[in-house]
Specification:
- The protein has about 375 residues and is of the alpha/beta class.
- The chain has two domains: about 50 residues, no CATH class; about 290 residues, TIM Barrel (Alpha-Beta Barrel).
- The chain has eleven helices and eleven strands.
- Helix 2 packs across helix 8 and helix 6 packs across helix 7.
- The longest helix is centred in the first third of the chain and has 19 residues.
- Iron/sulfur cluster binds next to loops.
Length: about 375
C-alpha cells in the first residue's frame, strides 16, 4: 500500500466511524470520497458503507415494484425518458388504466413479498378533477386488496389540496425524484424546474406523506453533482432514495451517453450511504444493464432496497432471480414495518428556500 492509499484508508475509516456513531459527513469530506479512483480504495469505502447499512438497517432489504398507469405522450422533455412526446422512441402509449391491471400488479407484488407497488404516470402532474378522483380510487382499491402498500409517483403537484386528497385516500409514500443536482437539472429538462420538484415535495410532506426521492446517475453529470444531489435529498428529508443508472434509450437525446463503469456506480452508492445513513437507498432502473455481474455488490456498497419486476419502459431480471440473490447473501426481504423504522429523527421537514413558480400555467397532459 502506498502513502496516498494509507491516507485514503485512514480518512474513510475516520468518517465511517463517525457516521456509525451517529455523526455526519461534511460536503467537503464526501467530495473526497466521490473522487476516490483506485479499486482498493473503493472496496474499502464499500466495506464501511456495508457496516453503516448493517448498523442502521440490519439484514433487511425493502422491495418495491411499479406499475405504469398511464404511458407515453408526456408533455415534458426529460432527455433520459422514453415516454416524452418530444422524443421518437418505441415506448408504448396508453391512457389512464382501469382497476384490474392495477390490482393484478398489486397481487403479483404481494405474492413476491414486495412492500409496495407504485403507480407511475407519464404526465406533467396532478391537479384537482376527475383524474385525481380516479387516482384516489386506485389507491383505495390496492389498500382494500391487502396485498401490498399503494404508493404513487404522479408528477408535479402545485396545489396543496391535491396532496391532502392523496393522504385522505390512504397514500403513505409518494415518489418524486429530484433527478440530479440543481446545477445539472436544466441539462436534462427545461419544461419544468428543479424548484417545481422541491415545491411538490414540500406539499406532500406538509400533508404527512412520506417521500421517495432520488435521481439518475450517468447522464453526464459530475461527481460533484452526485454529491450535491445526495445532500439535497438529505435536506428535503427523503425517506427512500432510489438511485437509477441511465440506460440510454434509442430516440432520446441521451441515447449515446457513455455508460458509467460498475465501480463508479458502486462507489456512488457507498457515498450516498455515508451521507444518508438511515435512509432506504434503493437501486432502481438501469441496475442489470449497467452493473452486470457486479449487481449483488450493491448491498455491500450500502443499498438497503431494491426495485424488482420490470421498470417503466425497460426490462429487469426476473423477481425470482433477485429473491435468490438476497437469499444467497443472507439478506431478508420480509418487512413488517414498511421500511420506515428508525428514520423519524431525520425526516422532519428541513428549511428549504422556495421561490415563486416561474410558469404560472399548469396544464395536466
Ligand atoms: S415528466 Fe416523467 S414521464 Fe414525463 S418526460 Fe419527464 S420523466 Fe418522462
Amino acid at each position: 500500500m502506498n502513502g496516498q492509499q494509507v491516507d485514503a484508508h485512514a480518512n474513510i475509516a475516520e468518517v465511517g466511524r463517525r457516521v456509525l456513531d451517529g455523526g455526519q459527513i461534511s460536503r467537503h469530506e464526501a467530495l473526497r470520497l466521490f473522487e476516490l479512483e483506485s479499486t482498493a480504495d473503493i472496496l474499502d469505502l464499500m466495506a464501511w458503507a456495508n457496516r453503516i447499512r448493517e448498523h442502521y438497517k440490519g439484514n433487511k432489504i425493502h422491495l418495491c415494484s411499479i406499475v405504469n398507469v398511464k404511458a407515453g405522450g408526456c408533455s415534458e422533455n426529460c432527455s433520459f425518458c422514453a415516454q416524452s412526446a418530444s422524443h421518437q422512441t418505441a415506448s408504448p402509449r396508453y391512457g389512464f388504466v382501469d382497476v384490474p391491471p392495477v390490482l393484478e400488479a398489486a397481487d403479483e407484488a404481494g405474492r413476491n413479498g414486495v412492500t409496495a407497488v407504485g403507480m407511475v404516470a407519464a404526465w406533467k402532474g396532478l391537479q384537482e378533477g376527475p383524474i385525481l378522483d380516479e387516482v384516489c380510487n386506485r389507491i383505495q382499491e390496492i389498500a382494500k386488496s391487502g396485498k401490498t402498500r399503494p404508493d404513487a409517483s404522479l408528477g408535479i403537484i402545485k396545489n396543496p389540496k391535491v396532496a391532502q386528497r392523496l393522504k385522505e385516500a390512504g397514500l403513505e409514500c409518494y415518489g418524486h425524484n429530484l433527478e440530479s443536482s440543481k446545477r445539472f437539472f436544466p441539462n436534462h429538462c427545461t419544461t419544468h424546474s428543479y424548484e417545481d420538484r422541491v415545491e411538490t415535495i414540500r406539499h406532500l410532506k406538509n400533508a404527512g406523506i412520506k417521500i421517495c426521492s432520488g435521481g439518475i446517475i450517468g447522464m453526464g453529470e459530475t461527481r460533484e453533482d452526485r454529491c450535491d444531489l445526495a445532500f439535497s435529498l438529505k435536506e428535503i428529508g427523503a425517506n427512500v432514495v432510489p438511485i437509477n443508472i441511465l440506460n440510454p434509450i434509442q430516440g432520446t437525446p441521451f441515447e449515446s451517453v457513455p455508460s458509467l463503469a460498475p465501480m463508479e456506480i458502486l462507489k456512488t452508492i457507498a457515498c450516498f450511504r455515508f451521507i444518508l445513513p438511515r435512509q432506504e437507498i434503493m437501486i432502481a432502473g438501469g441496475r442489470t444493464v449497467n452493473l452486470r455481474d457486479t449487481q449483488s455488490m450493491i448491498f455491500m456498497a450500502g443499498a438497503s432496497a431494491l426495485m424488482v419486476g420490470n421498470y417503466l419502459t425497460t426490462l429487469n431480471q426476473p423477481v425470482e432471480k433477485d429473491l435468490q440473490m438476497l437469499k444467497d447473501l443472507g439478506l431478508d426481504p420480509n418487512w413488517d414495518d414498511h421500511g420506515f423504522a428508525g428514520q423519524e429523527e431525520t425526516n422532519q421537514p428541513q428549511p428549504i428556500e422556495f421561490r415563486k413558480p416561474v410558469a404560472p400555467e399548469f396544464a395536466q397532459s
